[in-house]
Design goal:
Blueprint lengths: L8 H12 L6 E5 L6 H13 L15 H8 L5 E4 L11 H4 L10 H6 L9 E4 L7 H12 L6 E6 L7 H4 L3 E4 L5 H10 L6 H10 L4 H6 L3 H10 L10 H13 L5 H26 L8 H5 L4 H23 L4 H19 L2 H4 L1
Parallel strand pairs: 1-4, 1-5, 2-3, 3-4
The protein binds zinc ion (ZN).
The site of zinc ion has 7 residues, from helix 3.
Length: 353
């Protein structure tokens, strides 16, 4: 553990090594699943880079000096942090260059170009880099290409596929892994997200190593949905019309806010995908005999694996459509209709041979 951050010791060592050898890059792109601590890591790294007492490059911010305290309070004059504004789907140009009346007089790119006020360098963190538009990323290119001496830019995103090629070619990628179930369990208790160890254990098993996903999964209505949904995911029981109405009711319970509604659709799609990923893994290993779900999934063997792969493919596609802001009602209907077709095609493959 480094500075209260769990699970990313490999990344810490990489930065220590870069600092020790004088090879700290000017621009980094942090990539990894949501909710694993990339932003917390970036801020802690900035604190270490700005702390005047961390001269040896040990990445040990003292936590006590004025600089460290200003970083903790979110007020350091040499640290800029931007992210997706509430309710927006893209990072607007104004964050980087200022609004029309103050173009190039304020904003992240302007601030980074100034002399540091307190120490050796400036640091800029751009969270939600998955949501850079071509226009906003163009504003950044010059700063990424010719950063002022000592400046460090940190972009934070989830996957390479979601970054623009112009950003990828100008930054060094640093990968963050999903957290281990043990780490998630510990953090859920430490941060008082889970109310008791049993709940932490249950969440850690299903959150794919993401603390933010674990927090979303606490919702008891989600567990009710899962209890109803999973037994219906067999060719014999799958009824896309009934499921569409159940899912729509579940989404409506989230209220009118678009992000909350989208969150529930995403969690449901992931629940279905995880169920089939689990079945696929089990059917490829010797555990299959112990899994009651697998016996219910007619057909069996290779045909069951084909079915699981087809459901996974279609569910990943639905998640991408959700990210692209597709109409939610149409998305639910088309996804479930397609799953119904997949179940129908795979129900009794022997009969078609
Ligand atoms: Zn300090």
């Amino acid at each position: 553990m480094w500075q209260g951050i769990h699970g990313h010791d490999v990344v810490v060592e990489r930065f220590r090594h870069s600092l020790a050898s004088g090879r700290l890059a000017a621009s980094y792109l942090f990539l990894g699943p949501p909710g694993v601590g990339k932003r917390t890591f970036a801020v802690k790294l900035a604190q270490a880079l700005l702390c005047p007492r961390d001269q040896a490059g040990q990445l040990q911010p003292c936590g006590e000096c004025e600089s460290c305290q200003l970083v903790s309070a979110g007020n350091h004059p040499d640290l800029d942090v931007v992210g997706l504004p509430a309710g927006k789907r893209w990072l607007p140009v104004e964050l980087f260059l200022g609004d029309r009346d103050h173009r190039n007089q304020v904003g992240l790119c302007h601030n980074v170009s100034l002399r540091p006020q307190m120490g050796r360098r400036r640091v800029a963190i751009i969270d939600d880099a998955d949501h850079l538009t071509v226009e906003s990323s163009n504003c950044l290119l010059k700063t990424l290409e010719e950063p002022p001496p000592g400046a460090v830019m940190i972009l934070i995103g989830t996957s390479r596929g979601r970054q623009l090629p112009t950003i990828l070619s100008r930054t060094q990628t640093v990968r963050f892994s999903a957290l281990s179930p043990d780490t998630v369990r510990q953090l859920l208790i430490e941060q008082q997200i889970a109310t008791d160890p049993a709940q932490a254990e249950q969440l850690a098993r299903v959150c794919d190593g993401s603390l933010s996903k674990a927090a979303e999964l606490i919702d008891p209505e989600l567990w009710d949905m899962q209890r109803s949904l999973l037994p219906q995911l067999t060719p014999a029981r799958f009824d896309s019309v009934r499921l569409a109405s159940e899912l729509t009711a579940f989404v409506n319970q989230a209220g009118k806010e678009a992000d909350a509604r989208r969150g529930r659709i995403r969690l449901t799609i992931q629940m279905v995908a995880n169920h089939f990923r689990h079945l696929l893994r089990a059917s490829c290993s010797s555990q299959s005999a112990d899994l009651p779900e697998l016996h219910e999934l007619q057909p069996q063997g290779a045909a069951a694996q084909d079915l699981a792969l087809a459901v996974l493919d279609r569910s990943l596609e639905a998640e991408v459509q959700l990210d692209r802001n597709a109409n939610q009602a149409t998305l639910i209907e088309c996804w479930l209709d397609d799953l119904a077709s997949i179940f129908a095609q795979h129900a009794y493959p022997a009969a078609h041979i």
